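I'd like us to work through together how a protein chain folds, taking it slowly. To get us started, please write out a protein record for me. Go ahead whenever you are ready, and we will take it from there:
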Amino acid sequence: MRVLVCGASYTGKILHHEFPSVEVRFLTRRPEALVSQALLPFDPALSYDSILDTIPAVEENGRIDLPYRSEIELVLGKSSSAQRCRLVHISSTSVYAEDFRGEKETLPCFDEFTMARPETARGERRLALEERIKECFPDAVILRAGGIYGPGRALPLQFLAGEFGRADSGNRMVSRIHVRDLAQLALAAVTADTNLINAVDGNSALNSEVFAYLENLLSVKVPGSWATDLPSGRRIISRYADQLIRFRYPDYRSGFEEILRDADKLPLRES
């Protein structure tokens, strides 16, 4: 399988390093910078099985657009029934409304059939780009990713280093996905019977729950108090993700523990 990644992104690099059966090539404005990272550049003469677009929107002439639309059109133009190429775009769950407060059980649960209603400028741009992609490439698959974590983006290590406090995060409900699961979902999405997938592990958790788990696991205490009295946010689930892949990290606990284990920071448990 050959995949073209638009932008030298975190997810694209994980795809390159950890999926050896996949040939990954990168489309960037500075292809010479790929050499030092042992990454392969885009070759327009080749055929591709999928395009993974990870770049936020650009604005041209007052309109939201894809940064590499002409190159994407070139690659998809070579697609055939014998070798179908499909565009997969990584968006964000920020396109959903999120200003909800209440007890954990009363916070709303959103899936792919929930109407997008962004409440931030970032969410509005993400949704505008989704609409532009659907207009230009009707067959594209949109992955609305939750909080992406993994090697190099590790809350547990920030926690140990004292770089994260309660008041910094608020007691919000957060939906996550490990970058390795996001990478395998991006590959599997090429064959999906839908054009929209929430890329989340399906186990949203309040920051207070995550902090309590890490404090107990690591025997550390984070000073401060929560910025809000009531939990806030919303739970995000997917009707499709676990039909396409088997999650290596079905919740934050399994993902965080592997990160700590790899960093030799996971405490030994008594048998």
Remarks:
- The chain has a mean pLDDT of 90.
- DSSP finds nine helices and 16 strands in the chain.
